[in-house]
Amino acid sequence: MQTAKNVEELLRKKLRPVEVGRKSVSELLAAMAETGFQGRNLALAAEIWERAARARDTVIMMGYAGSLSTTGQWKIVKWLIENRLVDVLVSTGANISEDLIEAMGFNYWIGTPYIDDHILRKNGIYRFHDVYVREKDYIKMEEMLAEFMRGIDRRRPYTSPEFLNKLGRWLSERGVDGILASAYRAGVPVFCPAIVDSGYGVAYIINRYKDGNFQLLIDHFKDYELLVRIRAAHKDSAVVFIGGGVPKDFIQLSAVSVDILTSGDPYLTRAHKYAVQITTDSPQWGGLSGATLEEGKSWGKESPDGYSVQCFCDATIALPLISHALAERVGRRESPPALSWVFS
């Protein structure tokens, strides 16, 4: 919040136009940081993420919403996990199932939204705006998930990180090297608080259709407790929201429940010190996906003394630029939090 009162305080820093020339992505974003509008905010997003990566005793939690893996973003998420620029991933079911299609050796295809979708249906093609995938390939992914579900011990409920860690190991052993395989190898917990809203739900129904006694339980209340415990175990936290939705609020709420576990006082919080949101949703409609990080301060979700930026930008533009800047500035993070206890 701007608190400057006089001309000298208000006009402290000159805006500098971007000079065209040879630049790395990191250098370009550094130049954009001295411009305006969403270009500046995009540059600040990279700076805050870098600051969080260099901070001590800080856990970085990333919300990965929508169906972005179909657009080619999943390998970026893998890289962020492998280099521990993300310590905890909270994802939609779509993003950690649809990446498996390419990991299995199938393809997504460049398409167009300007087509009669009845033609696509007749030819067995699903459409994600301007991306196509073969229906038969998508079904093979769902059948693979169903096969995994049949092979695990289902006599007790799982948390989603336990379930997805087991799946990551199973996929890694079979050479299906998607997001979950990378998370398994890196010891990064992946939460999916709405897992049935995806191919995982279809895989469950496949098994129920084949065997009416088939059961599989995911305990999302335990999920939430685990995420709160992760937040409680570290002095500070950073949040990166790619989109909004369930992943965003699941992470946000971890800050407001920490002290219920530690002190019993529900009015004490451990607000996230670093916060970045990339979204195309607007705040005036009242939805969580567009809600500003400033609004989050009223709940104790973001710290008034921390570092935060909201960038209104398509994630397929922002995420490649930010990740490449982080590769140039940070590379592999040193001494990330150890979170293997989540799976025990």
CATH topology: Deoxyhypusine Synthase
Question: The biggest beta sheet, please?
Answer: 6 strands, parallel
- The CATH fourth-level homologous superfamily: Deoxyhypusine synthase
Assembly classification:
single chain
The top level CATH class name: Alpha Beta
Shape field: globular
The radius of gyration over CA amounts to 21 Å
CATH architecture grouping: 3-Layer(aba) Sandwich
Question: Can you characterise this structure?
Answer:
The chain is globular and about 75 Å long. The chain has helices at 7-10, 25-32, 37-54, 74-82, 99-103, 117-122, 135-151, 160-173, 179-186, 199-210, 220-232, 245-262, 293-298, 315-329; strands at 58-64, 88-91, 108-110, 125-128, 131-134, 190-191, 236-242, 272-279, 302-312. The chain is built from 14 helices and 9 strands. It is an alpha/beta fold. α2 (25-32) packs across α14 (315-329), α7 crosses α10 and α8 (160-173) packs across α9. The protein starts with 6 loop residues before the first helix and ends in a 15-residue tail after the last helix.
